[in-house]
Task: structure prediction
Amino acid sequence: MEDKDFDRLLKTCRLRLSEEDNKKIKSDIDNILEYFNTIESVECSKYSPSYQAIDIPSNKRSDNVEPFPNTDQILKNSKIYRFYVVGPKI
Amino acid sequence: MKRYIEEFSCTNKHDDYYKKLVNELEGINGRLHIFNNINREINYGFPFSVKDNICVKGVESTASSKTLEGYLPPFDATAVERLKSKGFGFLGKANMDEFGFGTFGINCANPVRNPFDETRVAGGSSSGSAAAVSILKYHTAIAESTGGSISCPSSFCGVVGFTPTYGLVSRYGLIDYANSLDKIGIISRSASDIRYVFDIIKGRDKYDTTCVDNKVSDERKSKLIIINQLMKNVDEEILSRFDRFISKLQNSGYKVEHVDIPFIDKAIPAYYIISMAEASTNLAKYTGFKYGHKVNDFSLGYNEFFTEARDVFGIEAKRRLVLGTYVRSASVKSKYYEKALRLRHMLIDSFKDALNDGFIISPTMPILPPKLDEAKDLDPVKTYSIDSITVPPNLCGLPHISFPYDYVNGLPLGAQLITNHFNDYAILDFAERWEDEFEYKFKYNLGSL
Result:
């Protein structure tokens, strides 16, 4: 992978790597992609993509609002202002 | 197990028993790093541990990641809730590879050491769960497998590890690695204990739309199928012990047939493509402000804030995040991700053909548990290749079980048995029959009554 492509990929991932990790992961990625490329030799175009390994019937629940009894506990995991979770600027 | 569950629910003498057990565990945990935390509150119930990527209400659940440090789930995972309601008492959170990313249990702050030889790895990613079963006489572990995370450590630690058909056990409360592959399963000292726990935790759950309620069968097979390609990279000593084991099974009436699935070795790259693609989206929820690790500098812009939040991921998580993002990108998606999904479909069909009239059997792992330093020195492709036997059934969502069948130089060897979707009871039956004639060995029996 070209350096510029790798840097763009890191930006997409929102990742910042140390110089050492950058060198290591970049070299690993080239080897791993070479390994991934070996699936090209298998002809399987007549098979549809299997998004799940088993048939799963549609289990969607109806779209009703249900109160969650433990909202305070959820908020305890974050920094809050009044009853809002404080997040970064957008 | 039922008898002991009743015994453990009696309050008589239990306080002293539990205090002594916790003290013993804390002592050994300093050396072996099996638990991320141990429950000091006395529980009147049969002890069970929970892999640290499965939520227990009010107990720090980190998936061994710094990014989840301090996270206290406000709810129990469905499997945990069901066990608590049936006479089981929560013992502690078991150590693991960060988010399940690993084969040896070394991708975390303090790698678990193998109870049979403390210089060696316990296997991964459910390293702590398997090691906990290996040292505790009365205990069961709720673990999770994505690509072999139950079978591998169970084999290395000399215990029985069961991965059910995908979808039979609710994933509600599991900290996701790869949603189409993750399966909550059980590690115990016997297949009968596993059956008891499985019957409690399986079944439909309104909180997990991928959870199914299919009937589980026990169709016994008289044929054992060995897939030649799976035996290719197995260590010679393991191979010769496995041949002896197969001869014993032949003497007890099983027919043995060797078959070829020529492309089965491609299951590993296909698995890693799918799992990394799914993992890279799952890791997006660690934003640095909702739970776990917090970024406190709110003057940072949106991108800088999230970049800062992701600094605490370990190197394997970062590697998988980069690769998973890449294989999903528009220019290569059909070459990697979609192709891997088609390959999974083809492999499922091949397995179904092979499993029509037999079980697939093999050693669980191609090598003995390596020393910790040796495992750290392996490059990623070599490490991923070591999953060659455990990945195929996991990729296809097939039920499988690993159980000890021999010991070499004081280390246990595990065999892996695979069957068709939803024929889970049949492999538990098989392992139970094996346990009637073969006694498992353990180096520790903490918590004996």
Summary: Chain A touches chain B through 51 residues (CB under 8 Å). The beta strands of chain A are 80-81, 84-85.
